[in-house]
Amino acid sequence: MKYVVILGDGMADEPIAELGNLTPLQKADKPMMDWLAKHGEVGLLQTIPEGLEPGSDTANLSVLGYDPKVYYTGRSPLEAVSMGIRLQENDITYRCNLVTLSETEPYEEKTIEDHSADEITTEEAIQLIEAVKAYFETENIRFYHGISYRHLMLWEGGPLDVCLTPPHDILEQSIKKYLPQGEKCDIILKMMKQSYGILKNHPVNQARIKKGLRPANSLWFWGEGKRPELPSFEEKYRCKGSVISAVDLIKGIALGSGMNSIDVEGATGNIHTNYQGKAEATLEELKRGQDFVYLHIEAPDECGHRHEIHNKVKAIEQIDKYLVEPIKTTLDKWGEDYRILILPDHPTPLRLRTHTSDPVPYILYDSRSHSYHEEYTYDEAAAKATGIYFTEGHKFMDYFLEKSL
Question: What pLDDT, on the 0 to 100 scale, is given for residue 404?
Fold first, then answer.
């Protein structure tokens, strides 16, 4: 038996006027997802436990079967695991975004224009992180470059009792109310303010401005946490698993739970990714003996944050055409029984440009099943209409893998 999860990050949404009061899932041409819906089970899944923030960290832990209330220790430590950073008990990590702030006001009154600095390239970002390292690194504070705008700061003995805000939650808002608060917040704020002076005139940013691109003119810290301790996925589910993703967070969850993390050349965290390569890697992992593959696609989430309405629809269509269809077709040819689960981790409504805690729609297709529901499609309203609702997201993996609940 083979098991495949295809997770479109942030794919769920709300009806919007620009799409004729449809959601992107309703608007998208996705014949294979809709076919699987008609021949499978469609319902809603609550991935974010009450009281926790609706991040991709908590949501993906939940989907993979790890109760975030038990195992979540912060977002950035999971990314640190992916980056090969060995964390000690006293280490605190922070996500370090390269963001675009408005230019005219004093720092405390600036507006956050883009949490990703127009999805700056990794090559450009490395140069900028190296520039700030020269100013800020000490015996206890170190910086590590990641992918695109996503980077990491490690602070030995750093503060956890601090209030930091994800930059994608406050797009086009003044940062004044969202500056660091709490223990040692003055040190963090000082680095942010000084980074603006370092980065705004950096040659990388001057070149970006000439190309009509936003500059990455400030650091922004958030997602603080300490070393995670995840049980082995294989021991938990008696199932050998692999994860395919372009983002460090998901890779970190994979490595932290003992699964294989597979890198795909040309895979990115946006709509311009190597869909074909991800599909081929999924099938290769199954072919070589893995029981389970978790295929994560970041594109719909990024489109939601950037309010790219038609790109979000396009991302869903590309997932259907270049991932769902070839994976299902190939599994049919192999002749071995399989199950496919399709879902988002959380909604990222275009209206809000950030995540919500609403339940997400899922499809569970079993190649052994002969059920058929003509009225089923794959979208938020159709999933709600079935009346199937799992309230504890972290228990759903047991259901998908046919383990005892």
Answer: 55
**Strand stretches in 30-103, DSSP E:** 41-45, 91-101
Q: Is the pLDDT of residue 4 over 70?
A: yes
Supply the pTM of this predicted model: 0.88
Q: What is the DSSP string of 242-296?
A: EEE-SSHHHHHHHHHTT-EEE--TT--SSSSS-HHHHHHHHHHHHHTT-SEEEEE
**b/e sequence 305-321, b meaning 16+ C-beta within 10 Å:** bbebbebbbbbbbbbbe
Write out the two tokens for 152. 């990491």
Domain range for 206 is: 91-225
**Are 10 and 137 in the same domain?**
no
- Tens-place pLDDT, residues 225-248: 999 999 999 999 999 999 999 999
Specify the number of domains making up the chain. Answer: 2
User: Within a domain: residue 290?
Assistant: yes
> Collapsing DSSP states into helix, strand and coil, what is residue 7?
strand
In a shared domain, residues 247 and 109:
no
Spatial distance between the Cα atoms of 117 and 213, rounded to a whole number of angstroms: 8
Domain identity same for 249 and 214: no
Mark whether 367 and 283 lie in a shared domain.
Answer: yes
CATH of the domain at 384: 3.40.720.10
Under DSSP, the state recorded for 213 is P
